[in-house]
Amino acid sequence: MSRPPLQIHAAGNNATPASGDWAHVPERSSMLVLRFFCWLALTCGRRVARLVLAPISFYFLLCSPTQRRHIKRYLARTVGEERMNWRDGYRLIHAFSSVVLDRVFFLRGRHELFSFDVKGAPALDAEVASGRGAFLIGAHVGSFEAVGASRYTSTDPDQLRLAMLMYPDNAQQINSVLDAISEPRFRPEVIALGRPEAMLRLRDWLDAGGLAGLLADRTLPRSEDGAAQRGDSIELPFLGRNASFSDGPFRLAALLRRKVFFMAGLYLGGARYEVRFEPLADFSQGTPGPAREAQIREALEAYVARLEALCREHPHNWFNFHDFWLEDAT
User: Closest Cα to residue 117, out of 222, 264, 302?
Assistant: First the structure.
């Protein structure tokens, strides 16, 4: 999910996680600063709070050499090494900070502050109307909260039953602060991966007609029971170099026989978001054996291709600040 402006998940000088092991990197944040930031946003409003984002963005651009190196590598593949400069790094971090600030307002139900351009909703609406539930698979692109916020209306504010599948342990500080200031009906349900009961909760949620959202652009660690993260890590071409992607999300969808939609809540600057829903795969027929394996592989390849196209189209919206291509180890 979107990360806070004062909490880039990456190792400092004394950190010991393996290169690219994002799930075990400690939080880099201060509870006092996080609470002040939320207080400022809710007391003084979004316009005043946004004034703080520029110095925050410059601070991390200047004082986080490890993250700056990873950002530079990514932008070289999307913007182009010849065209890229420090402004692109600043723009990416500022967009990241803006998205997290907006998360505060989304969780308070202040949707009127934003404009949403929603594309591809009819296909998803039809699946929701069927009552079968479906998977929404996205990436650390833009804002997950914007995806849910874009579907709320004054006449039917609870029309989208959306649960997020995530590893919550790596962001306990920011999650505790945001949980404290959010309104329960605007807070997405969370199904914590890595727990023995995760699969049962997920199945029951889908059977009740809910949607399950998962950000699949990180290779997930093994869970305690091995169920929440099924499948293998597969290397696929991504932005000019092979990268590891897990087919686990698609194996879950195949196991539970659900349709899969690609989702993205793109931040366009200011208070504007573009939310996209695109059909990605249909596992509802329960294809057996080798045919299912081929379908899973095809779905993963389609996902990576769409993510790559999205990163090239909106390069300042992808918020992975770790060693994604494991280049530090080579």
Answer: 264
Burial class (CB in 10 A: 0-12, 13-18, 19+), 252: buried
Evaluated on CA atoms 59, 62, 67, 68, the torsion sign reads: positive
Ordered DSSP codes for 255-283? HHT-EEEEEEEEE-STTEEEEEEEEEEE-
Q: Any idea which of 14-23, 32-41, 120-129, 256-265 has the lowest mean pLDDT?
A: 14-23
Instruction: Convert the pLDDT of each residue in 101-127 to its tens digit.
Output: 999 899 888 999 999 999 998 988 888
Comparing C-alpha atoms, which of 190, 191, 179, 6 is closest to residue 104? 179
Distance CA 306, CA 300 (A): 10
Side-chain-side CA neighbours of residue 249 (13 Å)? 33
Residues 74, 299, 276, CA angle at the centre, nearest 5°? Answer: 65
Measured between alpha carbons, how far is residue 245 from residues 217, 249, 250 in Å?
6, 10, 11
Structure-token match 């790559």, residue found: 308
**Contacts of 187 by beta carbon, 8 Å cutoff, 6+ apart:** 107, 179
In angstroms, how far is CA 280 from the centroid of its own chain? 17
Where does the pLDDT of residue 18 fall: very low under 50, low under 70, confident under 90, or very high at 90 and above? Answer: very low
> Do residues 263 and 228 make contact, with C-beta atoms less than 8 angstroms apart?
no
Return the CATH number of the domain spanning residue range 22-317: 3.40.1130
CA angle 227-232-235, nearest 5°? 150
d(CA 4, CA 121): 28
State both tokens at 177: 């602060």
